[in-house]
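Report of the visiting student (M.T.), summer placement. My assignment was to run the structure pipeline on a short list of targets and document each run. The first record concerns Beta-galactosidase.
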Amino acid sequence: MARLDDLTRPPGRPPRLLYGGDYNPEQWPEETWAEDARLMREAGVTSVTLGVFSWSRIEPTPGAREFGWLDRVMDLMHAHGIGVVLATPTSSPPPWLGRIHPESLPRDEDGRTEWWGSRQHFSHSSEAYRRHAAAITEDLAARYAHHPALTMWHINNEYCTHDWGDEAARTFRRWLTERYGTLDALNTAWGTDFWGQRYGAWEEVLPPRRAHYLKNPAHLLDFRRYTSDLLLECYRAERDIVRRHTPHLPVTTNFMPLWSGQDGWAWAAEEDVVSVDVYPDPRDPCAGQYNAMIGDLTRSEAGGRPWAVMEQAAGAVNWRTVNHPKPEGLNRLWALQSVAHGADAVCYFQWRQSRQGAETFHSGMLGHAGERGRVFRETVRIGEDLATLGPRVAGSRVTTRIALLHDWNSWWADPGDGALSRRVDHAELVRAWHRALWDAHLPASFAHPHHDLSGHRLVLVPHLHLLDDPAIENLRAYVRGGGTLVCGFLTGIADRDGRVRPGGMDTRLRELLGIDLLQEWWPLDEGERADCGTFHGTLWSEELTPAPGAETVAAYRGGDLDGRPAILRSGRAWYVSTLPEPAALSGLLASVAREAGVRPVLDGLPEGVEAVRRGELLFLLHHGNAPVTVPLPGRHRDLLTGTMTEGAVKLDRFGVAVLEEHPPAPGEERP
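After the run finished, the structure tokens were exported:
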């Protein structure tokens, strides 16, 4: 099976990092294309993604094929030594498809049609959509299978369509039949005797459309599972077509970062290259940690192999309330940070900033200011950096000994409007725990609760309120095998159907974590803090009775929970019944990590400096504004500058150093 390594480590050629972005030449007069190719060469671009939104250009009327313009662009890229990631254009059907086949358009929860005129206006369940998508994919693959510019396939774009219409109802019932077999099994799994909603015929089962009051959480859980699976069916259908024509080329589709709509673990298993679109907010003081987290998650979905940044912004985006540009140097910092976290491809949306359409204010590698603009000059510098690093970095891996567990099924099982606290946000809790590690300079990966965890010394469970039986047994086996486990609040309270476990938490987990009885959940209001002695808890608290022999590491002080455990420990298993404030959570996890034999990459790092080891290289990334000096034992050479350093490295604002150890040659004296 083809991998990203096949592109970044081609036989007989030096390893390289891919660099480029989405290129939409159909938006521009043809005389612009040659200028684009010249500037791409100047910027060190090695890869462009073509055709993402080109369906109406290729097929302006049903059955027509106009490939001439794309032929010329493919030839132009090849003539300039630029590889093409060719996209199937199926994320944005032409208006004629919706006009002729209105059943191909998705409907929302209220039954309203989502019309053409934007993008992603397709029903994943529509037979007409699937038929036309397969036809254009077939012809595209047949025409360009042997084109020398073609290096990889990009299927669709940011799969995110939901559908509550009649087409979806048909396939939802099919999916449920395959999952449960009988209506009795479905009624049991969904608990439909509550509110007397037991189903007597499959025709009565619909997507969870607008309801008078709260919807059934189990119904919602399965609809989210179904939506991910139906979109994955669409991906597989197109992937299998292009693989048949080009079995030697890798295939990808781009994830959105930590997005709830796709089961990233299931999707990544179907891809040759795992890729992601990531857009940190330049005004977010923790944006560097967010970028690191998305890199860690994507690398983990890829099984530790190199992965691809398919989209990021060279400057401002256009969809926040206020869209700030990236200060000088920040684009370079985040691009190289992704490389540090395992990326072998650094790409952008898009190459040339659009002058028309909905994204005219979304930046491009070549912005409205043109080749004299700051953004383009930074584009050139990043290309130079990646060309320098490629031979030493491409194909190497990041090794970690800490894993955070994440599962989309648990995210989907969130009871939503019926929850005790709507302030509990799964993604934000995952980010809070990852940030605690990042602040402590402890590198981490992600894992599914079914994965083999034995290679990790420390496993963290920030928020998995749904844990099935195999996952629970896996955690118990991990601790029995000598691993250290730290679980956050609400861990394992529900089974695979979202049904609350007897006792409010699975008995096996309570035994593992030293909990005799979970008396009550006590959510905290916004601004409310729980006094835990040496720190304050936020968001949540719990009334726990510890089991005999369990150690109360921290207890609540005052109020109804006075004296109750805030943090419990039973051997190598810990339970944290609140969300400690950031510094306290970071300190706790750093302490547990030390005991488990995991230490930071470097000690004594200044605030805002991140250290990551990838292969034999040490990346130092400065996320702060003021220059800093980083103490560094031994002698090193910075690959980006060629300079030697011993004892310390100086980093300017948003500075990056990529260091290799450089012991003195025999007879050489140290300076």
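The radius of gyration is 26 Å. The chain is about 30% helix and 20% strand. I thank the supervising group for their guidance throughout the placement.
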